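User: quick one, sequence for these tokens?
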């Protein structure tokens, strides 16, 4: 397929709510983003020619690129992007390595994304084949004796995301409830065990660690795990949510720095990182979800405090990516806008998008995988396309689709 064809980017403009700002400004801004998306897509495609052919992950590899094109097909309705997405995911499905089980860094990513793309193309047989292979990983995930961690990047929560992703994108029951429940139970049992070992059963009934460190953030830590457990699709029972998850969240909340930011781990007292992986931009998603589930104002209030820190310190020298860059931090505003409908947060997202429009002009460090979804350019494009369609935006490989929003 010709790249020129793919670069046609007819985004439906949904900035109605900004009408009072003057339509000329909105049109100019929209046009600048659309032009930048085309420009970055072209750079990305060029750069990918020298990317690692064996990296199939969503985080730094080809599944991430497939997810970007899936996103572009979603926001534009253009089938060409879906076919492009298929090309990339097919490549990953031939290269599964069986080393890891998560959506972001393991085989669950290519298999879940493959299942969704084939489903959209009405290739149900191929879709089912992906689901079957995904479920073959289930046994190692639920085994308590395995060394598998629980966090999102390499652990059980990252496999749980893949199951919930299928039930959201294809439909409820795609993965049966009992399979989801077993993974949820394994995560809960593991959290209880560590909490008992560390004598924190009273204060933090579900405690997690990765490489012997009790991380707080979304990627390796408790914020990401609690966030997954609170997803409606995870169907965690009310008692567990109230008795186990909620006090654990409150325990983590008390580790907040005076600035409103969060430490990278429970033992770290340096208020330095403002990343999705470590810091307020990841924890904010846990707080927003806690507000939806428990309906207590304190969670929303602290989510807004997170967003203030991100607004002040969230444009990073590390660049424009999703995991630890401007795009990932910008998503916190889009998600908060979703939750509150307060235009201030949308304005902030637009300002972060504006920063991304000057991609490369701020002397930022060039990431190791400069075109990837979570470290590089693909993530920036994903964010920019979501700024154009804020009503349906979602943090890739983390937030679930709109059916799961409320
Ligand atoms: Zn990161």
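Assistant:
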């Amino acid at each position: 397929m010709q790249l020129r064809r793919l670069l046609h980017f007819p985004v439906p403009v949904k900035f109605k709510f900004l009408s009072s700002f003057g339509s000329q400004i909105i049109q100019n801004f929209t046009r600048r983003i659309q032009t930048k998306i085309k420009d970055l897509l072209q750079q990305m495609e060029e750069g990918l020619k020298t990317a690692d052919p064996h990296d199939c992950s969503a985080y730094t590899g080809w599944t991430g690129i497939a997810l970007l094109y899936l996103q572009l097909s979603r926001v534009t309705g253009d089938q060409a992007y879906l076919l492009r997405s298929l090309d990339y995911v097919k490549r990953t499905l031939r290269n599964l390595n069986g080393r890891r089980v998560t959506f972001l860094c393991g085989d669950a990513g290519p298999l879940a994304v493959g299942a969704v793309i084939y489903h959209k193309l009405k290739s149900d047989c191929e879709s089912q084949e992906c689901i079957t292979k995904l479920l073959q990983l289930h046994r190692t995930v639920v085994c308590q004796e395995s060394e598998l961690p629980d966090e999102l990047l390499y652990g059980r929560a990252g496999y749980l995301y893949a199951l919930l992703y299928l039930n959201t994108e294809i439909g409820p029951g795609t993965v049966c409830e009992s399979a989801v429940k077993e993974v949820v139970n394994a995560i809960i049992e593991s959290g209880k065990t560590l909490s008992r070992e560390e004598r924190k059963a009273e204060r933090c009934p579900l405690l997690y660690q990765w490489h012997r460190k009790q991380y707080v953030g979304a990627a390796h830590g408790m914020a990401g795990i609690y966030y997954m457990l609170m997803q409606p699709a995870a169907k965690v029972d009310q008692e567990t949510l109230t008795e186990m998850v909620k006090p654990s969240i409150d325990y983590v909340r008390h580790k907040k720095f005076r600035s409103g930011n969060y430490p990278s781990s429970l033992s770290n007292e340096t208020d330095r990182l403002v990343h999705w992986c470590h810091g307020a931009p990841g924890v904010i998603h846990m707080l927003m979800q806690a507000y939806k589930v428990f309906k207590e104002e304190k969670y929303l209030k602290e989510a807004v405090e997170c967003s203030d820190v991100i607004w002040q310190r969230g444009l990073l020298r590390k660049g424009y990516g999703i995991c630890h860059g401007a795009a990932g931090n910008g998503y916190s505003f889009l998600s908060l806008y979703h939750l509150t409908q307060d235009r201030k947060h949308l304005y902030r997202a637009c300002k972060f998008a504006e920063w991304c429009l000057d991609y490369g002009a701020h002397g930022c460090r060039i990431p190791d995988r400069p075109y990837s979804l979570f470290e590089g350019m693909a993530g920036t494009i994903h964010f920019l396309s979501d700024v154009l369609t804020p009503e349906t935006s979602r943090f890739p490989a983390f937030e679930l689709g709109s059916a799961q929003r409320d």
